[in-house]
């Protein structure tokens, strides 16, 4: 259930090419995720601030945001003990790089 200050997103993954899976079908995957951040705005900033293709930057931003959300929600779970410090550092570095690129006026055109 969505809280007043949260954004609610539907994430969809659909196979568009490649061999069929073992059952001969590739049903799309869709799920909802709640975030205190606007994930689409984050994706836009990363796409604009990284020297990656638009698809790579989108996948990076979305993947990190989704992983970070699960890690934060389950921060006391021992499964995530090793990744928490590294993920915090990585996210900090990513934010710094995106901000640095933005402040230098080196916004990458989306492709």
UniProtKB/TrEMBL annotation:
It comes from the Bacteria. This is DUF3861 domain-containing protein. It comes from Alcanivorax dieselolei (strain DSM 16502 / CGMCC 1.3690 / MCCC 1A00001 / B-5). The lineage of its organism: Bacteria, Pseudomonadati, Pseudomonadota, Gammaproteobacteria, Oceanospirillales.
């Amino acid at each position: 259930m969505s809280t007043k200050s949260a954004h609610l997103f539907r994430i969809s993954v659909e196979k568009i090419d490649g061999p069929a899976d073992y059952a001969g079908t590739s049903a799309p995957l869709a799920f909802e995720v709640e975030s205190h951040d606007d994930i689409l705005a984050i994706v836009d900033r990363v796409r604009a601030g990284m020297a990656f293709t638009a698809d790579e930057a989108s996948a990076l931003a979305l993947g990190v945001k989704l992983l970070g959300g699960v890690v934060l929600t389950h921060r006391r779970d021992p499964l995530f003990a090793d990744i928490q410090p590294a993920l915090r550092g990585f996210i900090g570095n990513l934010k710094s790089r995106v901000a640095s690129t933005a402040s230098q006026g080196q916004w990458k055109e989306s492709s």
